[in-house]
Every structure is written in structure tokens, then in C-alpha cells.
Amino acid sequence: QVQLVESGGGLVHSGGSLRLSCAASGRAAAMRNMGWFRRAPGKEREFVAGIDRSASNTDYADSVRGRFSISRNIAKNTIYLQMNSLKPEDTAVYYCNSGTSWTPLTKVPGNDWGQGTQVTVSS
Length: 123
Description:
The chain has 123 residues and is mostly beta strands. The protein contains no helices and 13 strands. A hairpin with a 6-residue loop joins strand 4 (34-39) and strand 5 (46-51). It starts with a strand and ends with a strand.
């Protein structure tokens, strides 16, 4: 099992930026792809971004591509989500996930989740 602890959420104006962090611990932490998902009020959870265990491959939801950037510090077992040009529709609870897998058509979360961090974008 992998333990995940997120940080970095908050309130920001439209057009602003935030960076989320997720520190992973546990024996399998370094061996897995990781990703970010989000759940907005009244909506289903959706994939935001993923990064493989070597940090050489990434994937993004169309809605955030070009604005968000996922990265990984392998030595620290930590992933980041740099969010720029934020929009009110980005408001959601963001969850870190371990074991994320993806293809162009499917985005599948792994079994381990962080506690979530709230991101609120005001207009």
C-alpha cells in the first residue's frame, strides 16, 4: 500500500496559479505511475494528469492541457501539479493517486488515494 499526502490547495482569482504537491511513502511508491484527479461539486471524478514512474511520459485531460503541468521528483517520491491560467471551472477537490494508468481513450486510477486538497478559483 502507498500513503499519499497532498498539499498546496487554496483560493485564487481567475487567471492565477497554484502548485499542488503529493508526497508518497510505502514500499511500492517509487514503482508506480501517479496521477491527479479532481471532483467538482455535483460532478463525477475526472482525470487531470498522469506521469509514469520514470517521469518520462505524461498525459493530460484536454480541459487542462497547455495550462497544467505534472512533474515528479523521483528522489523525493513526490509529484507536483503546476496549475496556471486557472479558471472558475477548475474549482474542485484534487486527489493524488498511485497506480494511475492511461491510454488515449481510457484513464484508470489505482487503488491508493490521498485525502484531497481543495482548489477554489474565483471569477
